[in-house]
Amino acid sequence: MAPVSAHRRLVDEDESRRANGPDWDRYADEYQATHGAFLGDVGFVWGPEGLTEAEAGLLGPLTGRDVLEVGSGAGQCSRWVRSQGGRAVGLDLSHRQLQHSRRLDDETGVPVPSVLGTATHLPFAPASFDIVFCSFGALQFVHDIERAVTETARVLRPGGRFAFSITHPTRWMFPDDPSEGGLVAGQSYWDRLPYVEVDDETGEVSYVEHHRTLGDWVSLLAGAGFSITDLVEPEWPEGHDRVWGGWSSVRGRLTPGTAIFAADLVPRATPAPG
Questions:
Q1: What is the pLDDT of residue 271?
Q2: Which residues pair with 226 in a beta bridge?
Q3: Given its phi and psi angles, is residue 73 left (phi above 0), alpha (psi -120 to 50 degrees) or beta?
Q4: Strands across the sheet with 195-199, in order?
Q5: Which helix H or strand E contains 199, and what residues bound it?
Q6: Mean pLDDT score across all residues of the chain
Q7: Among candidates 212, 104, 106, 208, which has minimal Cα distance to 164?
Q8: Model pLDDT for residues 170-219, shown as the tens digit of each residue
């Protein structure tokens, strides 16, 4: 990996996309080699704490449901959904991640139809899905988040479920350090400037991650016609010693690292005749 410098500054959607697509292409092999066993080839994990969908049940019944995973990576979560009777489809920005999904299709015998695309331009007809979910996927890497949430509402059927996990917004106050150093707040929770890495050799943006507060997410969902049904903040399990980036038992025992939202698309009222 080329040397990078970290900044907090404004970037737009095009700059975010140009950075994050190639970044995930570069990182995909290492990511799958490092985390693949934890995720499971046919497994649904909501975050580094290890909470599974089998335990959480946030998506609701899956049998016979049409399901879209946004930011599907190698399709592990979608593959689990299909093993439970759901008709899951994956979408990801990274071509290399989708190649890993094809590899796991062959190895597991549980194929996941997947497309290359972005959360802000979902290539599906309106009301195509009963469930849309995103497990630490595209949403944190999107600048035009209102467009992404609106697109989700567009492809969901009335009453459909939207569930997603993100880095817990309070983590943005702390350095991304799994040791005790990551327990000391050093920046404002309300500073929404994105985290940006710039390639020192080329000067090009190579990675972008966007921060929204809990209140921002509530407003985004409500504004797109969703009713929030759950907000889960998984506790760090006893005996779980895995370190994943800034996630660790040292921090996880004291502060939340993941937030999982579940929300239903409120059906629009039919106008009264006359």
A1: 62
A2: 265
A3: left
A4: 4-8, 195-199, 205-209
A5: strand 195-199
A6: 96
A7: 212
A8: 999 999 999 999 999 999 999 999 999 999 988 899 999 999 999 999 99
pLDDT above 80 for 268? yes
pLDDT category of residue 10 using cuts at 50, 70 and 90: very high
pLDDT at 18 over 80: yes
In the three-class reduction of DSSP (H, G, I as helix; E, B as strand; rest coil), residue 209 is classed as strand
Edge-to-edge strands of the sheet including 226-232? 114-116, 87-92, 66-70, 129-135, 156-167, 258-265, 226-232
Quote the crossing angle between the two packed helices 95-108 and 13-39, to the nearest 10°: 30
Q: How far is CA 34 from CA 42, 49, 91, 120, 139, in A?
A: 16, 16, 22, 29, 22
* Nearest Cα residue to 12 out of 167, 205, 150, 216: 205
Residue 120 — very low, low, confident or very high, per pLDDT cuts 50/70/90?
very high
Report how many helices (DSSP H) and strands (DSSP E) the chain contains, helices first: 7, 10
pTM of this prediction exceeds 0.90: yes
Spatial CB neighbours of 239, under 8 Å, sequence gap ≥ 6: none
Can you read off the two tokens belonging to residue 148? 């992404």
C-alpha dist (Å) from residue 77 to 67, 111, 159, 216, 249: 11, 12, 22, 26, 24
Residue whose tokens read 């994943």: 244
